[in-house]
């Protein structure tokens, strides 16, 4: 799944996605194209709901996610514990709700880090060219040669197990995708006539990069960022599953799956709910990303 | 000819491009002058060097692969102290040249669809040279942008300031480009195929607009085109380029009525003549052959291989650009042959 989400970066690189002007008419037109796609809309609804869960976890979760209840160990779903309880009697629903924080937080933070590093490096490589470009791109190629998840695991193991370190590891692993995409987009945009026109007006290079090229490549970065969030959520779950992410007793969908695997026969609900949550979250971000790409694609205007 | 020194004095400009299959000599020793307020039309086919030599003067040819291999371009603009002074654009550091571009020399490009930034409002794009060169604040620049939209006859300017380029028609976008080019009241406006991408009726509107603006502002214009009709309508002087050289130059009337270079004649003959009646219907004449490979230009006159009037000397020795005997002063042509005499004798029919 993550590989599929990531490989789209290279394919998207060629044509620059049309600009997204912050103007009411254009925004409305964009929304019309986006909302026409049911999958994208459904994905957006799920993403928004997950966001509400993450932010309002303290009010929404019926129990303390770390409170144990030895009277109800691995209890099947009941009206009190809608999703059942785990091996030390914690409420699975409450842990799923709090786990949203780890997943969304890791997805958003790591991708923000990847964009914050990858976008400037990619712009530098694409705009400056020459030796700088060569150095940045060889490093990027080297990182891209290592599978995304393997690199994240290696980095997380090196940094030490914690959710923050997992986010950093995932963010660093995803950086090369954004370097490559940004560079390709910058090169495509820099060849446009309006960039030459901007030079003819007397713009210095830094202004051309920031005012003329950057706004035109934002949509493509946005699409890739959304798709990468999905991949980052899987990566966080994987790291937590391996014990490299969220540390017990704090909840994370990945670590919940890890404990659940020992009780698949006796307490399948322990595995089903976190598995389903990961599936839903990843699907939702992928649908939104695909929808964004279609809605921003200049070839599908009108 | 005139007492005051020229606004633009191009001396022996040469530009080359290094490609994998060899060096392309795109511009080979172009020299001419432009007076203040003069309109010069430069015509020639694609690859004649007409656009490249202008981009080279402004430092807009990407280097590499482009390379300015020689010459001087003296432009009489304001120096950093604000005095009028002729300075060599080719010798200027890039950061000085940036103060000339957009401020003293405005530029309008071929395709208004792609020359405006799709992610910026037209107000921001018109305001850009004002803010860069005149140091205007956001509010002043916006007010000036509105005046400029008025100037280029875009109706309802205040409301349209915050529109994006895709909300304008092709002709209106070219008007916006002209507004950007003229924003800082440059002494020289360069239009590079500015009407080529437009519908014929819109072309006429743009040409008329530029003529009106010239009367109001009085800037000199270099109008690069392959449309002889536009040149006839707008230019004082016409300059025909072929293979990176000027082959003929002079007052529009003289050159069009009495061409002395075979390539100029070929261009004129390839135009439909609407004044002929149906009985006198005539096939349009094309110029046979194709432009020379500028990696290996032929020795002598580069047009000789396509020229039915070529003499043996044309194939070995390039003719200099010289005053045409028996024509008005300033009518220059590069030819070893005597075109009027050959035509009178019935050659090239």
Automatic annotation (TrEMBL), chain A:
<feature type="domain" description="ABC transmembrane type-1">
    <location>
        <begin position="100"/>
        <end position="289"/>
    </location>
</feature>
<keyword id="KW-1003">Cell membrane</keyword>
<feature type="transmembrane region" description="Helical">
    <location>
        <begin position="104"/>
        <end position="127"/>
    </location>
</feature>
<dbReference type="InterPro" id="IPR050366">
    <property type="entry name" value="BP-dependent_transpt_permease"/>
</dbReference>
<feature type="transmembrane region" description="Helical">
    <location>
        <begin position="165"/>
        <end position="182"/>
    </location>
</feature>
<keyword id="KW-0472">Membrane</keyword>
<dbReference type="Pfam" id="PF12911">
    <property type="entry name" value="OppC_N"/>
</dbReference>
<dbReference type="Pfam" id="PF00528">
    <property type="entry name" value="BPD_transp_1"/>
</dbReference>
<keyword id="KW-0813">Transport</keyword>
<feature type="transmembrane region" description="Helical">
    <location>
        <begin position="271"/>
        <end position="292"/>
    </location>
</feature>
<dbReference type="InterPro" id="IPR025966">
    <property type="entry name" value="OppC_N"/>
</dbReference>
<feature type="transmembrane region" description="Helical">
    <location>
        <begin position="40"/>
        <end position="61"/>
    </location>
</feature>
<dbReference type="GO" id="GO:0055085">
    <property type="term" value="P:transmembrane transport"/>
</dbReference>
<dbReference type="InterPro" id="IPR035906">
    <property type="entry name" value="MetI-like_sf"/>
</dbReference>
<dbReference type="GO" id="GO:0005886">
    <property type="term" value="C:plasma membrane"/>
</dbReference>
<dbReference type="InterPro" id="IPR000515">
    <property type="entry name" value="MetI-like"/>
</dbReference>
<comment type="similarity">
    <text>Belongs to the binding-protein-dependent transport system permease family.</text>
</comment>
<feature type="transmembrane region" description="Helical">
    <location>
        <begin position="139"/>
        <end position="159"/>
    </location>
</feature>
<feature type="transmembrane region" description="Helical">
    <location>
        <begin position="213"/>
        <end position="235"/>
    </location>
</feature>
<protein>
    <submittedName>
        <fullName>ABC transporter permease</fullName>
    </submittedName>
</protein>
<keyword id="KW-0812">Transmembrane</keyword>
<keyword id="KW-1133">Transmembrane helix</keyword>
UniProtKB/TrEMBL annotation, chain B:
<dbReference type="InterPro" id="IPR003593">
    <property type="entry name" value="AAA+_ATPase"/>
</dbReference>
<dbReference type="InterPro" id="IPR050388">
    <property type="entry name" value="ABC_Ni/Peptide_Import"/>
</dbReference>
<dbReference type="InterPro" id="IPR013563">
    <property type="entry name" value="Oligopep_ABC_C"/>
</dbReference>
<keyword id="KW-0813">Transport</keyword>
<dbReference type="Pfam" id="PF00005">
    <property type="entry name" value="ABC_tran"/>
</dbReference>
<dbReference type="InterPro" id="IPR027417">
    <property type="entry name" value="P-loop_NTPase"/>
</dbReference>
<dbReference type="GO" id="GO:0015833">
    <property type="term" value="P:peptide transport"/>
</dbReference>
<dbReference type="GO" id="GO:0016887">
    <property type="term" value="F:ATP hydrolysis activity"/>
</dbReference>
<keyword id="KW-0547">Nucleotide-binding</keyword>
<dbReference type="GO" id="GO:0055085">
    <property type="term" value="P:transmembrane transport"/>
</dbReference>
<dbReference type="InterPro" id="IPR003439">
    <property type="entry name" value="ABC_transporter-like_ATP-bd"/>
</dbReference>
<keyword id="KW-0067">ATP-binding</keyword>
<comment type="similarity">
    <text>Belongs to the ABC transporter superfamily.</text>
</comment>
<keyword id="KW-0472">Membrane</keyword>
<keyword id="KW-1003">Cell membrane</keyword>
<protein>
    <submittedName>
        <fullName>ABC transporter ATP-binding protein</fullName>
    </submittedName>
</protein>
<feature type="region of interest" description="Disordered">
    <location>
        <begin position="278"/>
        <end position="311"/>
    </location>
</feature>
<dbReference type="GO" id="GO:0005524">
    <property type="term" value="F:ATP binding"/>
</dbReference>
<dbReference type="InterPro" id="IPR017871">
    <property type="entry name" value="ABC_transporter-like_CS"/>
</dbReference>
<feature type="domain" description="ABC transporter">
    <location>
        <begin position="8"/>
        <end position="268"/>
    </location>
</feature>
<dbReference type="Pfam" id="PF08352">
    <property type="entry name" value="oligo_HPY"/>
</dbReference>
<dbReference type="GO" id="GO:0005886">
    <property type="term" value="C:plasma membrane"/>
</dbReference>
């Amino acid at each position: 799944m993550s590989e599929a989400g990531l490989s789209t970066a290279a394919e998207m690189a060629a044509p620059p996605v049309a600009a997204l002007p912050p103007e009411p008419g254009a925004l409305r037109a964009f929304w019309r194209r986006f909302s026409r796609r049911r999958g994208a809309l459904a994905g957006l609804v799920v993403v928004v709901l997950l966001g509400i869960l993450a932010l309002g976890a303290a009010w929404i979760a019926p129990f303390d996610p770390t409170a144990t209840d030895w009277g109800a160990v691995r209890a099947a779903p009941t009206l009190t514990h809608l999703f059942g309880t785990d091996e030390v009697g914690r409420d699975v629903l409450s842990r799923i709700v709090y786990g949203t924080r780890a997943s969304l937080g890791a997805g958003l933070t790591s991708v923000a880090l990847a964009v914050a590093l990858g976008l400037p490096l990619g712009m530098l490589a694409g705009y400056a060219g020459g030796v700088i470009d060569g150095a940045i791109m060889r490093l990027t190629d080297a990182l891209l040669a290592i599978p995304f998840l393997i690199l994240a695991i290696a980095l997380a193991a090196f940094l030490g197990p914690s959710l923050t370190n997992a986010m950093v590891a995932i963010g660093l692993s995803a950086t090369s995708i954004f370097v490559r995409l940004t560079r390709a987009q910058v090169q495509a945009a820099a060849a446009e006539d309006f960039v030459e026109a901007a030079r003819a007006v007397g713009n210095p290079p830094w202004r051309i990069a920031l005012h003329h090229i950057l706004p035109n490549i934002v949509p493509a970065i946005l699409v890739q960022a959304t798709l990468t969030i999905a991949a980052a959520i899987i990566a966080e779950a994987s790291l937590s599953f391996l014990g490299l992410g969220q540390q017990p007793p704090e909840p994370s969908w990945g670590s919940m799956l890890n404990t659940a695997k020992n009780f698949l026969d006796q307490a399948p609900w322990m595995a089903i709910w976190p598995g389903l949550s990961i599936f839903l979250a990843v699907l939702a971000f992928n649908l939104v990303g695909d929808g964004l790409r279609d809605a921003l694609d200049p070839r599908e205007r009108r | 000819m005139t007492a005051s020194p020229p606004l633009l004095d191009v001396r022996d400009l040469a530009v080359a491009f290094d490609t994998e299959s060899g060096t392309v000599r795109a511009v080979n020793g172009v020299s001419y002058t432009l007076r203040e307020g003069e309109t010069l039309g430069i015509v020639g086919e694609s690859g004649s060097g007409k656009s490249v030599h202008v981009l080279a003067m402004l430092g807009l040819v990407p280097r590499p692969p482009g390379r300015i291999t020689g010459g001087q371009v003296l432009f009489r603009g304001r120096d950093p102290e604000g005095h009028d002074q002729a300075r060599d654009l080719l010798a200027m550091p890039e950061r000085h040249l940036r103060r000339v571009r957009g401020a003293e020399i405005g530029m309008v490009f071929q395709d208004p669809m792609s020359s405006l930034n799709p992610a910026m409002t037209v107000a921001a794009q018109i305001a850009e040279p004002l803010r860069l060169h005149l140091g205007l604040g956001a509010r002043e620049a916006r007010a000036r942008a509105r005046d400029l939209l008025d100037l280029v006859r875009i109706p309802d300017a205040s409301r349209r300031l915050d529109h994006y380029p895709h909300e304008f028609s092709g002709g209106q976008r070219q008007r916006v480009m002209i507004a950007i080019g003229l924003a800082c009241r440059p002494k020289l406006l360069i239009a590079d195929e500015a009407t080529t991408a437009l519908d014929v009726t819109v072309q006429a509107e743009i040409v008329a607009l530029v003529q009106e603006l010239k009367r109001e502002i009085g800037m000199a214009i270099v109008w690069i085109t392959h449309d002889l009709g536009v040149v006839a309508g707008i230019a004082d002087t016409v300059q025909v380029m072929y293979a990176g050289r000027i082959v003929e130059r002079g007052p529009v009337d003289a050159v069009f009525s009495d061409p002395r270079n075979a390539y100029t004649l070929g261009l004129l003959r390839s135009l439909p003549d609407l004044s002929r009646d149906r009985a006198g219907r005539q096939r349009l004449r094309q110029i046979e052959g194709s432009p020379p490979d500028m990696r290996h230009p032929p020795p002598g006159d580069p047009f000789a291989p396509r020229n039915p009037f070529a003499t043996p000397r044309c194939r070995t020795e390039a003719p200099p650009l010289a005053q045409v005997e028996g024509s008005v002063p300033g009518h220059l042509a590069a030819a070893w042959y005597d075109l009027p005499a050959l035509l009178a004798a019935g050659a090239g029919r």
